[in-house]
Each structure stands twice: as structure tokens, then as C-alpha cells.
Give the backbone structure.
Amino acid sequence: MHALEQKILSEGIVLSDQVLKVDAFLNHQIDPVLMQQIGKEFAARFKDAGITKIITIEASGIAPAVMAGLELGVPVIFARKYQSLTLKDDLYRSKVFSFTKQIESTIAISNKHISSSDKALVIDDFLANGQAALGLADLIHQANAEVVGIGIVIEKSFQPGRQLLLDKGYRVESLARVKSLENGTVEFVRD
Amino acid sequence: MHALEQKILSEGIVLSDQVLKVDAFLNHQIDPVLMQQIGKEFAARFKDAGITKIITIEASGIAPAVMAGLELGVPVIFARKYQSLTLKDDLYRSKVFSFTKQIESTIAISNKHISSSDKALVIDDFLANGQAALGLADLIHQANAEVVGIGIVIEKSFQPGRQLLLDKGYRVESLARVKSLENGTVEFVRD
């Protein structure tokens, strides 16, 4: 996705060979116009998939997911990383290990808002090791709903997440695929 | 805002005289079409205020804030409740006490994305005791930027937050004002 790649090149900061910081438009400050373009791109790629629900995770997944939900005309559920006071329903839960933070957290969604008839699209901001996407897919499977695909804003293609998800049979659509962050430079995958 | 009040009446759940659960469309599952309507309403109310930036807090503030940012043509910053690994810049920090959870947390935004020339609109999902809104306003003041107003999706008008913010001179625009949750029934403030 050209506009996203240009934004990464102009405002992304390469912190190391492993870490791309996009706090200027996605992870802390959010560019709503870019989010709308991202939503439209996800919608175009998945328009024939019969999606009935989008599942994402707080906090950085919410903006792209809501814009995709607006375009596709479906609700969005954001998984929480902890159990809040007013979310005391029966929950689907999954464990997610973060290699970045070296911690395991529990993510959860209420069983009230997803059912076995749902065809769900997972959306997340980053794909690195694939653990968050797998956790979200696990929540959907617990509801006996179908995972029709996984939409990623920025994929770090030099990390194992994409292949892990493909090996499990998931369709993965990443709007920007970063091949390398070496020498402080962002290089994209070209087909 | 009529569409929001109707949604609260049809899908909100009164858990107690104090707690209104709106996990069906705002705090867990999100209705993107309603969020767009909310964004347009905030934009209409603040269109002449010269807003340059919207400040909200993860996670439930993000969807309405991004839709308002899209309508107003300005970026959104969401304050984080903790310091993440890739957000190591100098931060503006404030303490927020949650009466609901009975805990104090630190909220923070990077000083990279806000400056003294900004005219900032605070947006949050709920207004109860006003502590989150005050914390967000404090972050803006630390940047020597101007707080031009506070936009709230659902105000619990029987709690002290609104008056507290008005007493400090802030303009408060709440799209739904809940007068009472007594007897399991939502009653709205009528002017």
C-alpha cells in the first residue's frame, strides 16, 4: 500500500535492526486520514469473504480495525489485555507471549458478541512473531466461529510470524511488508 | 444526540445505580457507524474552535477520537496508561485516580507530538468523576498548549465530573447526559 509505505519512510524511526517505531501515525499519535485509507484497503482485500465481525486487540489495533469495520459494515470487538470491572461476563481467554516485552499476558473477549455463525477478520497493527494474531484467532475458534483472514498494517517479514500463520492455513494480508531494517533503513518486500 | 441515546436505551445495560455497561457498542464491541456519527457530532460542535489536535486515552477513547479527528482533519494522540518499550522519549506524565477501580495510574504522552501552538480537544468515552479528563488536560497544559474543550460520549450527570470541569473553566460537550440509572432505568438530562 503506497501511502502507508511512504508514511513509514517519512515518519517511521528505525530504532534497531528489529524495531520500527511508528508512534507518529499509528501507535501513539494516529493519522485518521491514513487510517481511513487503511480501512478501505482492508475492505477491498476482504470484500468477498463474507466477513461479519472484526476482532482486534487494544490499543493500537483499534483505529485501523474501526475504519475497516466502517467500510465493511460490520462491528469490531477489541480484545482486552486484562479483565476490567464491568466486563464480568463469561469470557473467551487466550495467553499471548510478547517477545518484545518478554511477558505473557491474557487476552479476552466476551462470549456475548461473537457466535458460531460469525466469519471473523483479525486485524492488528504489527505482525512480528505472530503470537497476538494466533491468540486472537484462538479466541475466535473458542466461539466456534470462522477465521476468514488476518489483516496486518505493518508486517516485519524478516520475523517468523507470517510463515507461522500461513502454515496454520490462515490467509494473511499485510499492507506494508518490511523486508529489512538493517543499517537504519526501511526496505520493503517487492513481489 | 438522538442516535446515541437510542443505542444506550436499546443495548446499554444498567448494572447498578452507578454503572452503565455499554460493551455492546463502545467499550468492548464497537459500532463503527455510530462512531462515525459521534465523530461528526463532535466536529460540528467544535468546528469553529480552531482545533489542531485531539487527545484521548486508551482504549475506549480511541474510536470516537479517531472519527472526530477524521472529520476535523487533525491528528489524534492517545495517552498510554503505562510506558511501553518503544515509547522512550521524554514524556508528559500525569496521575489519574480511578474511583471505579480504586487505583491510581500514570498516563503519559510523548512531548514529540504536541507543542505550545496546539489547540487541543480532549475526547473520552465516559465522564463520571472527571479525573481522566483532568489528567489529559494536565498533559496538554504541560506542553503549554491550549485546552479548547472536552468532548464526552456519555456523561453520568449525577456524578461530580462535569461540574468539576466547568468550575475549572473548561467547555464540556457531552453527547449523551445520563441523569439517573435508578431502578434499572436510564434517564437522560433534558434541557
